[in-house]
Structure formats: C-alpha cells, structure tokens
Amino acid sequence: EGRPGVAATLRALNGVLGRPAAVWVKESGARNLRHRDFLAPRAALNAAFPGGQVPPEAVSAVPSLRGPAVLPLRVCRQTPAGLAVQVRRPEAFQRLLGPLPGPDLPAAGARTGCVVLHCPALRSPAALRPRHLRSVLLADHLAQLLRAQGVGVRLVPALNEERSWEVLRQLRIDWPPGSGGSSLPDAVSALKAALGRCPCAAACEQGPGTAEGVIYKVHLKSFVEQQGLVGYDPNLHVLLVTEGMLRSLAELQEAVLQCPVSDLMALPASRFPSQSSCCSIVHVVNCEEEFQQQQLDLLWRILDPGAHTALQKHLVCGPVKVTNPSSTIGADQYFQLRKRQMYEASVIKYGELAQDEAWIEVIDTLTVAAIRFEMLSTAHRSQITLDLENNSISTKGTKSGAFVMYNCARLATLFDTFQGAVEQGIYPPLPPVSELNFSCLREEGEWLLLFNYLLPFPEVLQQAAQLPPPSKGIRITANTETVCKFLIQLSMDFSSYYNRVHILGEPYPHLFDQMFARLQLMGAVKDVFHSALATLHLPPLSQI
C-alpha cells in the first residue's frame, strides 16, 4: 500500500468533507493523542457547515478512506472539540516499521533542477568570524537537504588554495576547493567587454582621487528604476567596479554553466520561482554583507541579462552577537574554545574515560554538533547570541547538539547489547518484520515516537529544503532550523521513553513479542536519527 504520510491523510480527510478549505489538523501533544490523532476543530466546522453540522454520510465515510499514502483510520466521532479521528495503530505500526524509505526521488540519474548556493563570506580577505560561519554552515546544510531531494547543487566560491581552511575541515563543511584549469580569465574579459558597451557604465582612468583597482563606475539606481526592481536598498547609487567583482561574477557564471543539461529544467513551483527555466541562484549572506551582495546582484543583471540572473534571491542571516568575552574572536578560536569546553564538560560527566585517546573523535564530533546546533537551530533571520563563558556549554542540556548525539549513542548501545545477548544465546535473533506483533506496542511513548517523528520525517526533510519565492523583492525565507528542532524534540521524547521503558526484558519467551516489536521501533528511530544527522554532516556516535 505504500508508506503513509501526513499530507496525504489530511488531503483524504479534507476531501471527504467536500470543502475546499483545509479543516483537519494532526494532533501532536501526548494528552490529546490519548483520545484522538486528527481533529476537525469545532470553529473550523462552524465556518465550513451551517451550524457546524457535518453530514452524517461524510462522518461515516471517514473510516473507509483508503489510499497508497493514507493512514488506516479506525473511528470518527463527534466531540465537544470537533470531529475526532483515531488511527488503527497496530496496522500503522506495521506499515511504517518496514525499511525506512527516503524522500521521493526522481528516477535514477534524473534531477529536479539545479541550485547555485553562493556564500560571499568565503571571499572575505580577513579571517573568518562566527558571523561568517553562520552563513557557511547554513549553505552547507541547505546543500545537503536539496541533494536529498534530488536537486543538483553547485557551491560558490571555490576555496582559495592560498588560505588555510582548517576550521571548515574541523566543522566537516564539504566545500569544493579551487581548480587550476578554470576558464575564469576569459569570462572576466567578456564581462569587461560588456561593461564597455553598457550605457549606465563609465570607464575610470587611474589617477588622483580614484580608488586603486577601480576600472568602471556603474549607475545602479537608474537601472533599478528603469527595470522597476523592488526589494533593493534605496542607498544603492554608483558602484565602483573592480576586477575582483568581475571575477566573482565570472565564477557564478561558470557555476551556472556547469549545471548539467538535465538540471536546466523547471524546478517545482513549491520550491523555487515558477518562471525558472534554468538553475536558481541563492546568495546566502550575513546581514553585514547584504548591501555589497545587492550591488553584485545588480551588476550581474546589467552585464548578463539572462533568465538566471533574473532569478537571483538573497537568503539573509541575522547578526551573531558574541558575549563573554565581547572582544573580537575568530572562527578558529571559537571552535577551539568550544572544543575545550566540551572536553572539560565530558571529563566532569564521565571522568577518566573522557581523557582517553579513544575519545578524541567523540569530543570532536560533540564539538561540531554543539556548534552546528548553536548556529542552525535558530531561524536564519533572527539574531544569535554566543555566550563563550566556560559554563555556557554542557553535555546535559536538552536543547544542545551534544544531547542529540548522546541519545543517538544510546540507541547504538541498545543494539550492541542486544546483539551481544543474541550471540550468548540469551535472546533469539530479531525475526522478520512480517512476523512481529505490533499490537504489543501500547505504551503512550511508542505511538508518540511513531506518529510525531517516523510518520512525518520524509515531509520534514522536504519542507526544510523548500525555498519558496518571495511575495515581492529579492529576499527569501527558508526553514533551515527545521531539522535541528526536529532532532532536539525527538531526542527529548525518545529520552523520556527510554528512561521509562525497559526494552530488553527478561529472557522469557512470553515477553519476546513485545521486546521484538519495541526493538523494531527503536531501529526505525535510529534510522531517522542517522538520516537527519547526515544533513548536518554529523556521523552517529556508537558510544558516549
């Protein structure tokens, strides 16, 4: 029948009521899930039906709803809160606890378009700072999310080989290095020639009063007014063009041309601007770089008035405020500080174990997790405040990357323990899914894990990868905090369940059915952890 999904089930429920507006909602709170799984609230019913009275035939049709991605529904009844529906839970467990499918991907070799993610922070001649890291980490995460949806991604700029990028390697940021055989010089010459023909550009002779390296002046404001462009800073007037700017544009052009022919197709309207006939360009910038990037955006539109330059969008990150100390700190210093704090916190929690050489990789991974969650679990438009005091990082906080990694490691330990017991003859091996009895899963936390995390997970990844077109202007908003928040909430609910329920019980045959069903559920939870962490370039830990 296929894997059930939230969206398909809601569509079927809304369809049976025969109303165009969405009426039904999915429940998520533990208290409400004791009584219902989906609700058509009384206020929505009053707006959709005279007196809020739903035709009896519509109510009676709900339990018979079928579809490849529709959950099996058990009962629909009128309650003071509205129409309430419960799922046939054992059947839902059976359908969801097979091998975890990934997101719906196109056929092998095909892609659903191409996106160029441009991160100007990596062109900064100065040392990287935490504010630069935020936009780089966001672009890196977004690239992983898009690739998981079958979208081709090009990352720009290539890293300058003359600089050290050790902090990017330490943070497991997968960014392409520079290549020797680039065609950039020819592209820069072509852009210079285009400047010479541009009516809103004037050549600059080097002399007194002329900034070094400036070759042209371009009147941006008149271009914005002529084209009727909106969303640009009103203070954009004259741009002093340098060869460095032209090299930046040439590299962007090269990235667009490198998109395979199969990628140069219309992207889904739900994800990118509907007029796209080639790859979309997204400039991922911190708020301090936004003005300069708008200048380059307009210069590119002037020199290369193609479909791709018209599709430039800006994803702007809010400021990163550093306190304690408030002095300027580099990205490498920030990483080393967090690593030292994570090491000290681990020594406090685990004692001598944390000082063993085998823990070096664990501490590195926990540090990367702490920084990535610190930077990515907040909406990208909002300010982040980094408190760098010694006690500002912990292995215990429920909203930290370390907490997520700790719970992932608990699952690894669970299965290692089970496998060891199987090898010792204490338990039989886990039977095939078709032989498991999921009616044994009656604990409240088990349904919570399935219904709130395993069921919606593919849709969570899809939503996190969406880059919806702006209502107007050039700024776009992405849900780049979605995966981190999902993992934090999953970790909290899993931890609560794991602390309350003894999964590996006494080795009595009459208890095996429940233990095996729980192990299958825990295996699916582990798969979700691993898949979500992969979008953050975080390997699962086998021990903490």
TrEMBL record:
GO molecular function term, any single one: tRNA binding
Domain DALR anticodon binding: 404-544
BP-aspect Gene Ontology terms: arginyl-tRNA aminoacylation; tRNA C3-cytosine methylation
Pfam families: DALR_1 (PF05746)
TM stretches of this protein: none
Record-linked PANTHER family: DALR ANTICODON-BINDING DOMAIN-CONTAINING PROTEIN 3 (PTHR16043:SF1), DALRD3 PROTEIN (PTHR16043)
Name by which UniProt lists this protein: DALD3 protein
Gene coding for it: Dalrd3
